[in-house]
Structures are given as structure tokens and as C-alpha cells.
Amino acid sequence: MHLLPQTRQLRALHTIIRDRTARREDFVFYSRRIIRQLLEAGLNFLPFESWEVETPVGRKYDGLRFSSQICGVSVVRAGESMEAELREVCPSIRIGKILIQRDKVTKLPRLYYSSLPNDIAKRHVLLMDPMLATGGSALAAIQVLLERGVPEENIVFINLITVPEGISALCKRHPAVKIVTSSIEERLNENAYMLPGIGDFGDRFFGTDT
Q1: CATH of the domain at 68
Q2: Is 200 a residue of the active site?
Q3: Largest CB tally within 10 Å, which of 48, 73, 123, 135?
Q4: 102 is catalytic
Q5: Where is the Phosphoribosyltransferase domain (predicted)?
Q6: CA distance to 5, 58, 176, per residue, from 82 (Å)
Q7: Phi, psi for 81 (deg, rounded to 5)
């Protein structure tokens, strides 16, 4: 579990996007700034190997480079809000998609669609979904990756906000999955909404809120 440093700047960004009166363009812009920080932090959990280069002045620099292939996987629809920022930091990265929705009758998460790289079992995966509440969708998405052969320890879950209940559910089932988040909320209310919360992230980001 990795929580971004709770700096004054990060709190200021959260203040803007949590404001119910925030304009959509501000919500999108400042959300993307936080998402960029999350992705940069998530990349730190990927494996690196030593790599030496020569500088313009003819000196050697003992550096690092990624030692394995990576890919992103977004949980449709809210997770797609993180794709553009991922492409900014990793321009050639492959991005898969998983669509999971809660069944209206059983109230359980149900897989409707997935499209993933054929060789995903050989890659480290940045799984992207801004909200981790009860953990149902995240657990279902992780199960899809495991069934495709991705080792549990190769999954980094990039998440904007979460609650203790969601963290507990995910860590209990998949303790090797790494979670990177920018805020741990107080709790879920009786309707499974996070408090103090941010509303429906996908609706606010894509402009479909009512």
C-alpha cells in the first residue's frame, strides 16, 4: 500500500476536485495532475536493471531502465480517464480494457467485456480505476488478469481515492497486489458512498453527471 505524500499542493488539488461546484474543465485538469503523480509513483514499483550510457561530455553514467515489458489496463469507464496521462509518461505503452458492472439483481460485479494484450502474462500491469470503495470491481478485474496468467505480484493498482473497507477487501484476497492511491477516505456510508468523497468520478470527468 503506497499513499502519496500528503503535501499542501496535493490537498489543494483535492480541494478543487471535491468541490461540488467545480467546473468540469477544472475537475478534469486538476484530476489529471493528481493522476500523473499516481502513475509516476506506480512506475517506481516496476522492476529496473542497471544500464550504462555515455553523456554528451564523454563520461559514463550508471543508470537504470525498465527490465520487463509493461502495459496499462483500464477498468471501463472511469479508468479510461487515466489513459491519456499514462501515454504521456509511456508513449508506446499498450493499454487493455476491462468492463465490469454490478448486476442489478444479484448486486455482484459482472464481467461484460475484456480486451487485453495477447502476451499480458509476461508483462507488469498498471491496473487503473479511480475509485476503490467496496472493492468488488477491483477484485473482479484482478481475477480477469490472474486468469490470463498475470502473476499477482506483477499488478500495480493505480487508484485516486479509496476507503479502509476497500483496502482490506483487496489486501485480504490479493496481498501481493500493490496499491497506489492519493487519499484514504474516512469510510463508506450505508449506501456504499465514500465519505467525504468526490461523487461519481466517471460522470464528473466525462460530463455525464446529472
Answers
A1: 3.40.50.2020
A2: yes
A3: 73
A4: yes
A5: 5-208
A6: 20, 39, 23
A7: -65, -15
Domain hosting residue 75, numbered range: 9-206
102, 110, 148, 173: which is the annotated catalytic residue? 102
- Concerning whether 103 is annotated as a catalytic residue, the answer is no
Within a domain: 2: no
Q: pLDDT digits over 54-96, tens only?
A: 999 999 999 999 998 999 999 999 999 999 999 999 999 999 9
Task: Tally the domains of the chain.
Answer: 1
**Prediction pTM value:** 0.94
